[in-house]
Amino acid sequence: MRTNRAGRCGRALEASSSKGAGGAVDAGGLLADGARPTTVKRNMIGLAQSRHPQKMFRVDYESREPLGEAAAGRVLEAVRAALADADVLCIEDYAKGVCSAVLCGAVIGAAREAGVPVFVDPAKLTDYARYRGCTAITPNRTEAEHATGLRTHDGDNETASGVTAHNAALAAALGEAVDCDAVVMTLDRHGALVRAERRVCDAADAGAAGVRRDGRGGCVLAGLAAGRANGLGWQDATRLANVAAGIAVESFGAVAVPIERVHQQVIADSVGEHGKLRSIEQLLVEVRAWRAAGKRIVFTNGCFDVLHAGHVSLLDRAKKLGDVLIVATNTDERVREFKGPNRPVNGLAQRAAVLSGLAAVDAVVVFEEETPREVIERIGPDVLAKGDEYEVAQIPGASFVLERGGTVERLPMVEGYSTTATLRAMGDARAETSATGETRARFVEDR
């Protein structure tokens, strides 16, 4: 940045950086170059339908001249000093003259020598030689085409896996040209293609990240680097990065993406894959998000072994007490301990799947303890709901919820329905069938 008297933007940047956002931002690596202006990007905003802010275009004030030799030397020195405490190095190349072939090569070499992985969001170039030796490169569709001369396949009518198969050759060409461990190519609405260890993975779901391109590259780069630095595999790290990018581009203006928001979205996106079953750690992420949004959280628990109309009615009424219904259910071992050696009829996986299929239920969690009190104390629900066959004093966790200002609701049971009665009726039906030698079901085709 230019720091002479005319460099108003540079001085403003220095001032804001020195404040450090309360110590959260380390601006120690910020370097001044009196020969260059500070890049300024001005977004021109209009109001769609006279009320919704919408960016119309952007005006950039910048220099694309190559960085001077002295300035490049100072950048390299600063990077080398920072590598001692770094877990990962990210290079964001905007093609503004800073990331020259010489400087990129020197920086990547220094990082490799220090054992620090290097992640690159490349510029739109025809030659990626300057990035050779990096750990991973994250071009978008257009950049990948420009660098290889090959065309990507957008697969208008194809699944993400179909798009991945068509673009595998392009990803392989990039990987060989750059000699990197992984290529993560963003594909707009198709998410991202991941090539690592000479294997191409299915594209990660785009979600909201496929809505628009501007602003995605930096978020994908940062998310991928953070995921890998924290032990995620390439595909999971790419999914994390894609979710973070989607959240960022959905927001108006420049925003920081809280990791809690990313976790919550990743869990929400997994419903189709894993249903509503959550570990307690996953559930707590969602609980924090629900609470921040002002939602009223309802909790109930039970074995829910042979689900019947009485159960469904209770859960529907419990949901109406708030915005979110969490159902905790026992392990098979606990059900057997409480109900007898022939229970449960349905194992935990089946019970959780059936509960997940109910519209009233937002999340299912399993607890191993004799009572759900520990789970209740970790969740801190606003409402604790149980059937009215229990007095308040008999309901585990009731005193905790009441002490926190919550409520305990005893819901009337529906007469004529019980798991015991259902199982007895099933047993009578089997006995009748056995006595008459008749059966109403034939499975000839399945033999």
| CATH topology-level fold name of the largest domain | UDP-N-acetylmuramoyl-L-alanine:D-glutamate ligase
What would CATH call the homologous superfamily of the largest domain? Answer: Ribokinase
**Strand order in space, largest sheet:** 3-4-5-6-7-8
Number of helices, where a helix is a run of at least 4 consecutive DSSP H or I residues: 17
Average the pLDDT over all residues and give the rounded result. Answer: 83
Beta-strand percent range: 15-25%
Named at the architecture level, the CATH assignment of the largest domain is 3-Layer(aba) Sandwich
Q: Tell me, what is the CATH class of the largest domain?
A: Alpha Beta
Which keywords apply here?
elongated, 447 residues, Rossmann fold, 17 helices, disordered N terminus, UDP-N-acetylmuramoyl-L-alanine:D-glutamate ligase, single chain, 6-stranded mixed sheet, alpha/beta
What does this structure look like?
The longest helix has 18 residues, at 419-436. Helix 2 (69-83) runs parallel beside helix 3 and helix 8 (234-250) crosses helix 9 (259-269). The chain has 447 residues and is of the alpha/beta class. It is 42% helix and 17% strand. The chain has helices at residues 8-23, 69-83, 101-114, 141-148, 160-166, 168-178, 216-229, 234-250, 259-269, 271-274, 280-292, 309-319, 332-339, 348-356, 373-379, 398-403, 419-436; strands at 40-48, 52-61, 89-92, 118-121, 136-137, 182-186, 192-196, 199-204, 277-278, 297-302, 324-330, 363-367, 383-387, 407-411.
